[in-house]
Amino acid sequence: MENLPQGYRPNVGVCLINSDDQIFVASRLNVPGAWQMPQGGIEDGEEPKSAAIRELREETGIVSAEIIAEVDKWLTYDFPPAVKAKVNRLWGGEWHGQAQKWFLMKLKKDDGEINLATGEADPEFAEWKWASPEEVIEQVSYKNMTWNKYLFFTV
User: Fold this and answer.
1) Beta-carbon neighbour count of residue 18 at 10 Å?
2) Would you state the CATH architecture of domain 8-154?
3) Domain boundaries in the chain?
4) At 114, which helix (H) or strand (E)?
5) Which residue ranges does the record assign to the Nudix hydrolase domain (predicted)?
6) Which range (66-75, 91-100, 131-140, 141-150) has the least confidence?
């Protein structure tokens, strides 16, 4: 992957909007009250765009979204110390944090397509909602510094 910062796990994030320009967020099953946008690791040999489409499908069941825009560079964040130890054990690496490629995608169908238990992967989310950009910035955890400067392109 081109220009990937060394020591950071490659990852994609999806800012999914609906026809009202609201943003999809979901609360994590394993961390009650932690809201986030769909995201996940890029598999070996996988292109970031393909990873974004796959992660959205696996985590939400959505297949009808189209990519509208892509942040042209890798955005990085460092893991907090407690998180770093846990994820490095889980992923078997020595990552400082994650380098993310963010994609703006638009849902082309209605909410009926959303299914948090698709069967493709273990469910990650307990519930979901549509939120304004302001709500997203308030509710999403430490990673928000990575993407909130790019949120302007959603509306």
Assistant:
1) 16
2) Alpha-Beta Complex (3.90)
3) 8-154
4) none
5) 7-155
6) 141-150
